[in-house]
Design a protein that fits this description.
This protein is about 0% helix and about 55% strand. The protein has about 80 residues and is an all-beta fold. Strand 8 and strand 9 form a beta hairpin. The chain has a five-stranded antiparallel β-sheet with strand order 3-2-5-8-9, with no helix packed on it. Strands 4-1-6-7 form a four-stranded antiparallel β-sheet, with no helix packed on it.
């Protein structure tokens, strides 16, 4: 398995799907710190890709999306899945 940590720098929202389970919605507030553990995949549907900092097993993940734009990202133990 693997772990994803998200630090929120601006208010936004997201939906998360862990290992193909039901989607969970979050209203994010600046300063929030959220952690998830997964066996296979974590899918993040972000309303503002620039509002969060994401770490995968302690290593920063760089989203290739401009700040203020939405992003849909699927992570596994190796990083961002294409």
């Amino acid at each position: 398995g693997f772990m994803v940590r998200m630090k929120v720098s601006r208010n936004s929202s997201l939906s998360v799907i862990i290992d193909d389970a039901a989607s969970q919605g979050y209203d994010l507030t600046s300063g929030d710190l959220i952690e998830w553990k997964a066996s296979r995949t974590i899918a993040l549907d972000l309303t503002d890709a620039g509002s969060v900092e994401i770490e995968l097993n302690g290593k920063p993940i760089k989203l290739q999306v401009p700040a203020g734009k939405p992003a849909y990202v699927i992570l596994d133990a190796n990083g961002i899945k294409q």
